[in-house]
Give the backbone structure.
Amino acid sequence: MGRQVAITSAGFSEHASKRSDVSMPELVNEAIEDCLTKVPSVELDDIDAFVNGNMPAFEGSNLPELWMTDWMGARNKPLMRITTGGTTGGSVAIGGYYTVTAELPGIDTVLAVAFEQQSQGDTSVGLASVAYGEISILNSLGISYGQLNRLLSGGAAIGVAAYQATNYMSKSKITEEDLARVVVQNRRNAAKTWWAHLKMPDLTIEDVLDTPYIQYPLRYGMVCPASDGAVAMLFTTEEKAKDMCDIPVYVNGVASVANETAVLGYDGSGSAQVDPSAQIGAMKSAELAYSQAGISFPRKEIDYAEVYAPFPNQELMWDEKLGLFEETTAPEMYETGVTARDGELPVNCSGGVNSTNAIGASAMERPAVAALQIMGKASNQVPKTVHTSIGSGWGGSLNFITLMVMSDEPKRKWK
Amino acid sequence: MDKVGIVGYNQVKLYSDANYGRYEMIFEAVRGALDNAGLKKKDITTVISATNDYYDGRTISNCFTVEVGGGYLADESKVEMDGAHAMLYGLMRILSGNHKLAVVWGGSMPSCYPYHSARLYETDPTWERPNAYVNDVTASGFQMRAYMDKYDIGAEYIANIAVKNRKNAAKNPLALEEAQNSNITVDEVLNSDAYSDPVTELMVAQPCDGVAAVLLAPERQALKITDKPVWISGVGWNQDTYYIGERDLSTCTSMELAAKQAYDMANINDAKNDIDVAELHEAYAHEEMIFTECLGLAEKGEARKLNTSIGGDLPINPSGGAMGGKPPCATGLIRVIEAVKQIRGEAGDYQVDGVNRAVATGQIGMCAQNNIVWVLEGGGE
Amino acid sequence: MTEKVIEKNKGLVKADFAFWVGLYMDKFYDGFEQKKIMANKCPECGSVFVPPRKICGKCRIKLPIDENWIELGDKGKLINFTRTAYKVSDRRARKSKSLKDYGMVQIEGSDTAIVYPLIDFEENDLKMGTEVKIQWKENPSGGPSDIEGFVKL
């Protein structure tokens, strides 16, 4: 049951804080165009089905896939929409995989697209409801809204991430400098990625530490930007993939697991978690996806990783939770250059979410870049040959993790 | 396609103002489906939900349903469409071999949000939305007129569908109370207030609160779980172009293409004879006629001649259909559940005799822009 | 059973949105300022689009931004109509007492139809095929409400 799936291409739109030159469907169309240029034998007509997703509340358009049908080339074609908040892109990519692997008659080649045009709305307002947890339950717990605002969260994603950061820092005993180092690596990498948003080729740790705090320990210079952008990925069967490109990238493991509860304070949602850096969902996702892919030693078997992390502390934390490094050792890996472009295990050579964050697209840009690194077509290509790579996504309130494991060899060879 | 069975189902009673929490409703639906199949939370490996951020009035609407929907530490995702589309993703996950039991649930509470305004957010914000001349209300009027005009059909035929469905709903204990009416007449429907002319208020499926859930399992597991699995023998889904001014609203191309895809998969050549009962997600009475034709159950323009009552040639919506209550994100899934009930002989007062193969549909968008068609079969193995 | 009363929610989250229309719609709305309808045409199937767009959905090809533009007149014919009392806006939907007519009109020379109110229509004017003309706002500002509606020719 379930056939082998391959990725044959991935494409991006130009990302920026404002893409006022395009409407939302035109933005999506740009990414599709870039995706299909890389596979000359494939035309829009050859796509059998589409998967689409973004974070709808951020730009004020409900079910925008209906409106952008023609811009995707999806008129009179099967289309499914998947949205899961911050992980939307990852979930859409996983949806693309499942659409192909299900082996439904006539559905071989699937185009998955994810996007966000955040300049159209107010992302922080949209996120407030997530950060605060299940607001309607608060009254019954005797907590007033004002109290919540003062005590628990500085607002939106950064509010909850700050708590996660302090939790992680107390475990790993790292300093703010370690956080800044991650940012420097990302922004310098972004400078070499054509579609990235925050390009800072000369950024230094001092520069980052010179910026003011938003909420301790996160400084202005450490947080992701809000971007407009789109990404597209092409999934197809093993047989068809060989005709489309030189190095098909096989999808060998996927997972999207959450450990989230509706009630604040019960190891649950938003800013009230007991330890938001515990990440049981991430570990379970990794366990599932690696076992599907036949990976027993992630630290040895994975050559490249794109880890979804808007904030530097998260990149360190998830590197560990996804099994790339031992617990609390990630900061050291950044210091010694293991994660650099020419390192042993390069991480986020695209600059990551820390440099470019079109929310709905971000979690798909991770597997997209990780796949291109295997193909040797990435914008900031690593010098070594990449055989196996991963791309993750983060969403929900804090604990929803998507993961895709890709390789240049199909799954069956390992079994 | 490998065989996948529907092994359990549950739907909560529909209310126009449910007066209990959204999460309790989801829990009731999902827990009921597990009980229906004799399974436990730990048996779930994947959960697919269908909700909508605008309908729920919050960003990432699936984020707080993880526990109540059975998704805690399970591999989960959300399809932001009709519940019937979520089942498509559930099917794919089972077919992948990665999962042995999928929970699919969908639903929302329109008593908590302005339904038409949320639907307005679906329109092109750079062209139609600022004026709001195109919205779900006016679109229904254009659609019904296009159909009537094309085939020269009087409004009384369409009112007739509303009468049939509202009478059927009266036999369905889970249907919306406001929609149940065993004495309704064609005149009453025609003389009710104008909704969007020629559509009248009683021709409209009323949005209401509700959640539904089904369980899917591969053949081997399905046969262990239940004596009466219902097999998925075909599925098709398709999307039309967006602007209603560019579509032929007298028909529904996406429904035709989805039906073709599903019938090819299920080896159906003569839908009219091969299908015993149909449960359609008709947002308005006229959509039932359009869909009946697009599904090949009647020739174009001839749906009015078909006897679709419970004892008729081809019963359509014996449960009352969406007219018996239309909880957004659940309606299509309820159609699937009703088809399953018919095949298993569990439909009570509205049971159709001798059902072995049924069709169920779901839709989203203005004038049913995106449709999904399911072909379901009984037979034990 | 006594009814439980929950403290009234005083907090309200409001989010406002503004949408980029893109270069194609930009040109379209620039035309509105001069009371002109700018359409674009697919070189392959010949379809003429109002409003103009980057992609022909039927042929699945790109229509370049500086080619295939056509200026259309303000006449058209009614191809569908409806009458409703519902008023739908971003914030709420309500039902007023008076009914309003809306028409789907195909502008002469185009292959698409647009929806606007029908102004001063008598009951028996509401027929498929009725010839109509755009009624422009006196001082158009380059937005979708520059067209007030359609009047009978």
Observations:
- Residues 22-33 of chain C form the longest helix (12 residues).
